């Protein structure tokens, strides 16, 4: 089962290699309420994310909470328009507990995140995150934020309601560092699964560390070994790593055989 999990994780990452990669904000970013909030990403090389939506999120790594949608129908395939600016909303508390979630209707199972960043008050004042540990025990600060005026909230994209409600997150937003695309890998659950798994994506590939490029579940590499035909004593084996690199290992028998042959004893 562990091997299968590793293989699925590797496959998930390969599946979204060309998707837009959020690069800003980073863990060090601080924006003030009422001022410009900006974000940036690497262009989508797949050419499919032509109507990207961006949500302001909060919560822990496994129970992400939608606050409001801040960007809609953005063409992430246009290299000349890989930034977005909007007015920072009035939230509470003002702390380093906010992050963005990127998605597109063309590929709703693949969600991308930025790391947690700080949304300060209009006067620049902030408070520490209320929580210091994730549900899994990791020392990654977080908290629950909200709009001061909830009536101004823009709902999440319709295509995410079913996706998130029927998914279970197995890995999510990472924690600090500068921008990393948090890669969330989830598996489909029965329709009765709690909608709380707002950290969505089906065996495919956040944030957070720098909600930017940290795919924890895929950090391990899997190796498969294949042996050459058993009819030959000079067997070799090929070890293939998760990233596709292959190395050929020559057995001890093969080396001894070659040495003896060189001495003319064969």
Automatic annotation (TrEMBL):
Biased composition, class Low complexity, residue ranges: 124-138
One Pfam entry name: Kre9_KNH
Residues in the signal sequence: 1-18
Keyword set, alphabetical order: Signal
Parts of the chain that traverse the membrane: none
Domain of life: Eukaryota
Chain positions covered by the region annotation Disordered: 122-171, 216-242
Domain Yeast cell wall synthesis Kre9/Knh1-like N-terminal span(s) in chain numbering: 25-118
Protein name listed in UniProt: Yeast cell wall synthesis Kre9/Knh1-like N-terminal domain-containing protein
Source species of the chain: Rhizoctonia solani
